# Entry
Amino acid sequence: MANSLLSKIPDEAAPSSDEYAPNARIKCPADVIKDYQTLFDDDWIAAKDRASVQAMVDGATPFSESRLRLLGLHGITNVNWGDLTQAQQEAEQPFNDILDSMDNFGPIPVEQGLLSDAERVIQEPIIAEEMHRMITGWEDFYFNWWLLSHFFTMFGVGFTYRDDTLDWRWEVGSLQNFKIPRGTKASIDKVDRITMKTDMQPSDLAAKVRNPEAGRKMGWNPEAITRSCRKAMPNNMNTADPEEIEAWWKDNAVFAGNNAVVVTVVHMWVKEVNGTISHYVVDYNGGTDDKAEQEFLYCARGKYGSMGEFVNAYLYGVGTNGDLHSIRGNAYNLFSSTAALNKAKCKFLDKAMDEANTFLSTESEDATIDNMITPRGPYFQLSTGVTFVERNTPPVAGNLVPALQMVQENFRMRSGGMAPRAAASGEKGQKTKYELQRRDEMDGKLSSSSMNLFFVAWARDYKEIVKRASSPMLQESHPGGKEVFAFRQRCVERGVSPEVLTRLDYKRISVNMGIGKGSSSERRAVLETLNQEVFPRLDPEGQRILTRDTVAAYTDADYAIRLVPRAEGQRPPVDQQIANMENQFMQLGGQATLEPNQDHIVHVATHLTYIQGVNAALESQEMGLEEAIPQMQMAAEHTGQHMEYIDPNSAPYPQFKEALQQFNEVIVNGAKSLEAQQRRAQKQQEQGQEVSGVETPPGVYGAAVDARAKADALLMTSQTKMGIMKKEAEQKMAINDAMAAQKIMQTAAMARARAATSKPKTKAK
# Structure
């Protein structure tokens, strides 16, 4: 059955240009057909091997049934035990499971100079999250991801490709679809030309030239397309393609009679002498018409700047000689071991069945024909002349079992840590805990290696997606444009500047590989260690992230976000705003209230900043004791209430505690001095003496200076370690609010001072 991978040929393309035509390597459609057929013939032996591997994964028996009948051995065990199928499924599983552990594919930086550092740390994570939402929300994403991981792990090579220059979405192919010259190095940039044969429905092909003039400008040939659609034929199995034959057998479609009518086309991407890539589409069956033979269905010379702009190769290493066709995947490497394992298990079962049989001997031919065994309930009665035969059985346990174990161990080792654990279950009791641990560590390294190779290629695709999604040329009506514009709208609604969404620096993108490299057990083990050793020393944002990742390890990323919502840079500013309002309220003599669900670290840091501002005013003598001490005392008491909700083992707690103690010393000493001076003023009033103003004693002044210095250092250390003010926007907001509050206090103090100096000092309040 022909593969219908390229269901839509590009709607938009650079038209054929005379600039490239004189140097074009492809002159006519016959060149494309000839080149494809040559590459197909060169790949036939490899295609036959891939078909054999696919057949074993699909459940093909180890022996040919027709040959067994010919030899009179049709009664022996002939079973595919599914070891390769299970191994292949387990090899693919980490690549599929890894999606559950991540809420974005990697940070997406904005071009330099567009945003401040404060804006960058807020907006870039939002862009990455919404980009992840756009990609995974695409209806074909999971299918294409799973299919890609299947080709990658099974054969060692998988391809993603796009059929125009704007659509960010991709399709998946394999070496069955892409025919590439032998000797090509294992790098997509080293590929000289690619051909691919596929089927298209006449309606899809005709839609390209529904507007003939517009189609012609984009590179289509309306007349050639019309002739090809008229000659469309039913889709039939290509008996020359071993992989296609296997696919038809697997789909139970070999004897299907109602096949779809299709136009078989051949695509060719070829690197021109100037380095650009041209794209051609021809009718595979057009040779019957002389005119059609000389015309392309589609021709776009110099369409791409490089092969990597439309196709990406996922390579399981560099092979044995650095060539693309020398690369082998997991299933291919396990094929020979699986074949031996299937035969060994079949032989073992045959021997076990032989051991379960009873052998009898008779004295004559007549005794053989007679009813020799008569059931009597739980017993059997033997006829006269029938006796049991004692025979020496071969030592099955001594020869077959060790051989079977040897084959199983070889199978597990060649699987690269991704073979079914059941295959090695017989040895676990014979190995020590440390031997099993060492083996599991080796298996994890092997699995991580394949994951690293996969994500090296995915990084190129991810960059291409971001590049196309940020293209200012993309319109909502273009393929994939609807999803991109929805992505941009969500970003803007969350506070992202619209102008940066077309200025994403895709070249600096790095991909996120998740925790555990696709292994759920490893991911949970790592998170368990982090929760035990690191969690108490993290700031609230770090604790929130770690908690969310832990939930995702046992559920999925979406459910984790529901339980532990993203802060998104919103919670700290909200808490800071509330804390600043509380500071202003307490300055006016009001009593601030505490809510248990507040970000207590943010509140403590903000209140200490306020206390520090009052302390600075006291130090500079802009504020007197009678005004400063009550404000500091009220704020310190409220701050102490927040301290009760902070984990004493967390990093900022000791710094906050020491800073608060320093301020409390100023408050205590200042209160004592204020009380003493009030008693002295009262005594002077009773004696009819002029009451002197309240002054800050040198001791209190020194304590205030010392408290300020230590508080500055401690707060700076705490903020550096914890990142409480990690976002510059939040820092500026808190500082501006604190400065505004301090300015209000200073203004009020100066006003009261001026009022006091303008009145005679005859009485004390």
Summary: The longest strand covers residues 261-271. The chain has a mean pLDDT of 76. The two ends are 100 Å apart (CA to CA). The first helix runs from residue 29 to 42.
